[in-house]
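Run log, item B.
One chain of 272 residues. Sequence copied directly from the ordering sheet:
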Amino acid sequence: MSLRFATMAAALVCGLGIAHGAAWAQAVPTQAAGSPAVAAFLAGQTKDCPGCDLTDALLIRRDLSGANLAGATLMGAGLSEANMTGANLTDADLTEADMTAANLRNANLHNALLHGATLYLTDLTLADMSEVYMRSAVLRRARMQRVNLTGAFLIDCDMREIRLSGATMTGANLGGSKLDGATLVDLDLSGVNLEVTDLLGTDLSHSNLEGAIFRKADLYGANLSDTKLRGTDFTGARLSTANVIGANLADAIFNDTVMPGGETHTGPLPRP
C-alpha cells in the first residue's frame, strides 16, 4: 500500500475525512500548469501528460484512449463523454472531476483519488480500480462489470443501479454508500464492509457474503437468495421482505435485526 493511500485510510478510520486540495506527496505535479508539456496536451498535440497539472482542464469528448496520465492532477477537470479506454490514470488526482458518460473501459486507475468525482453512466468495465479512494462520489448507473476493486475505499458514494457483475472486491470498503437497485449477482463479497449502506431492492443472489459486514444496512426487498452467509454480520440491519430462499440464515449474526418477516431478532437461528 502506498504512503498516500495509507494516510487516507488512517484519516478515514479517525473520522477525519479528506479535505479538498489536501497535499499528498504523490499528487504534486511534475509538469506545472503553463509548461510546454501541459500546453501541448491541452492543444491536442499529444495524449500523454504524466504528472501534469491539468486542474480544471476542459477535456469534454476528448479522445484520450491509451493516454498516459499517470500521477496527473485533474482536479475539477471536465471529462464528460471523453474516450479514456485503456488510459493510464494510476496515482492520478481526479478530485471533483466530471466524468459523466465517459468511457474508461480497461483503464488503470490504481491508487487514484476520486473524492467527490462524478461518474454517472460511466463505463468502467474491466477497469483496474484497486486501492482507489473515493468519498461522496457519484457512480449512479455506472457499468462496472469485471472491475477490480481490490482494497478500494468507496465511502458515502451514490452507487444506485450500478452493475458490478464479475467484479473483484477483496478487502473493499463501501461503508455508507447507496446501492439501491444495484446488480451484485454471483460476486465474492466475503469480508467486504457494507456497513450503513442502502441496498433497497439490490440483487445479491448467488453471492458469497461470508464474513461481510452489513451492520445497520438497509436491505429492504433485497434479493439474498442462494447466498453464503457464514459469519455475515446483520447487526441492526433491516431485512424486511428480503428474498432469502436458499440462504442459510442460521450461519449469520443477528443482533436487533429486522428479519424478512418483519420481526426483530437477536441471537442465532435454529438450523433447518
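Observations after the first pass:
- The chain has two helices and four strands.
- Residues 1-26 have pLDDT under 50 and may be disordered.
Flagged for discussion on Thursday.
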